Amino acid sequence: EPEVTQTPSHQVTQMGQEVILRCVPISNHLYFYWYRQILGQKVEFLVSFYNNEISEKSEIFDDQFSVERPDGSNFTLKIRSTKLEDSAMYFCASSEKPGSEAFFGQGTRLTVV
Amino acid sequence: GQNIDQPTEMTATEGAIVQINCTYQTSGFNGLFWYQQHAGEAPTFLSYNVLDGLEEKGRFSSFLSRSKGYSYLLLKELQMKDSASYLCAVTSNQAGTALIFGKGTTLSVSS
User: Does B17 contact A at CB distance below 8 Å?
Assistant: First the structure.
C-alpha cells in the first residue's frame, strides 16, 4: 500500500540552527501539506502546496519557515533559525485531489534544545 | 475564524457503542473529516462527510448536519484497539484544501 514517508524520525537541534525535514508524498498525489503537533496539543495546519507553489499557509508559517519540492518526489520543510517552541511532531501529508482524504506520514519529532 | 469543539475525553467498555460529537463554526464549509490517532502515531483517515446524513463504513459511521454545524462519529462493537484520539477536522473556503482540526477526543476502552 502506498504511504507517505518522512525522514528523519527524530531530530535534535540546538536553538538557532537550521533544520530540514524531508517527506516523500504518495506518487500520484498532487496536494502536499505540513502539519505540526506540539506534545499534548491539537494537530495544527502549517502550509499547503500545489502545482509547485504554496496555496495556503497559516499564521504559524512565518518567515522562518519555507517549503520546497526540489525534485519530482521530495517535499521539504525548512526551519531557518529554530526556537524552543518549535519542538513538536511535524507531519507531512498528501492527497490526490481537493476534498479527498489526506494520508499522513509517521512524522518527524523535532526537539530544540 | 474557525472553531471546532469536541469532548476532551470519553470512556466506554468493550462491545459497547460510543458516539463522539463535534460542533463547528466556519464560513464557506466544504467538508468534515474524522481521523483516528493512536498515541505517538500519525492520524489515519476514518470518514468524510460533505452532504447531510449518515455515512457507514463497517463498525464506524459518521453523521453530518450542515445547518446545525454538527457531526458525530459512531463506533460500534468497541474493541480495546479502538482506544485512541478521534480528531474532527473541517475544510472550508477560508483554508482551501487544508484540514483544520479540533483538539480531539481521547477514547479509553476498558474490558
Answer: no
